[in-house]
Amino acid sequence: MAVSSSSHFNYLRSKMLFHLQFPITPLPEKFDHQNKIVMTGSCFAEEIGCLMERYKFPVQLNPNGILYDPQSISEAVSSWLVPKAYSEKDLFFYNDTWNSLKHHGRFSHPDKSACLGRINASREKAHTQLKNAKWLVITFGSAWMYRHKASNSIAANCHKLPARDFDKELADEAGLEKTYTDLFEKLRTFNPSLNILLTVSPVRYVRDGVVENNLSKAVLIKLVHSLVNAKNVFYFPAYELVTDDLRDYRFFKEDLVHPNEPAINYVWEKFTAFAFDEHTMQLHEKVKEVVAAAHHRTLHPGTTAHRIFAEKMLDKCRELSVQFPFLDLEKEKIHFGNEAGR
Fold it and tell me: Containing H/E element for 41?
């Protein structure tokens, strides 16, 4: 029997539930510490990707830097499939640095050769990583795009060029669906074992306007749900977890735009339940223990008690390295070795 909305409300009130939780069907294919991962997209991808890196998953995070719109993301992924290097003609000089419209400012540099070197090294690494990856994770941020007038191309990053150099336009949903359908076919040929996970960032891009942001998110949500019916393409509801489950400005930073640390940790908790099997979760908890210990600031370094603690954690790192040789715990070993006076 269907439950009326009033009955559902009374149920929630009787249970004193203050946020609307909803079930998330776990992935049929799981993430683990041995399979390579490529993550790309908006700044929210950076938050989850940094946690993946922190806990020793073999991730390459944002090979082109932070990207927001689906057209730029598609162009970036396509560029990793072919062994074609960027050249000087792909760069421009502005604000005393060489830059690429297809890359984040982290690749910019006063020296042209250094800028190109950074870009091509990252592209080459992405080519290799994606060829051997089990997962490509894409986080869409905004459907608003900025077309560079002089080159007639979508800018992944505007590098603070004058606004008059760009035309702002909303991505065409039908065109994007074809773009990504074609891209996924190329990816399956490039790496038949690849799975694709799509997410939409819960970050509000209020610089575009509140109404315009909601329109943008609607385009992105419609896009991902038109794509997840394809083989080995899945969706994780990061956007819904923040906007519908948490649904409170307490879970945003002071700018009221970016999710804060408790929100990110909540989404991470939901993601691990969604994407990890029991074995991966058990190993994750062991890794999390030594990583947390390595980042803990002790009040009394150099004491006998702290040296004993460091020795204990160093032994744990060594045991994990023997049991799971694919884990990279070298930084933690060095840290605990120094703390123990080795």
Answer: strand 36-41
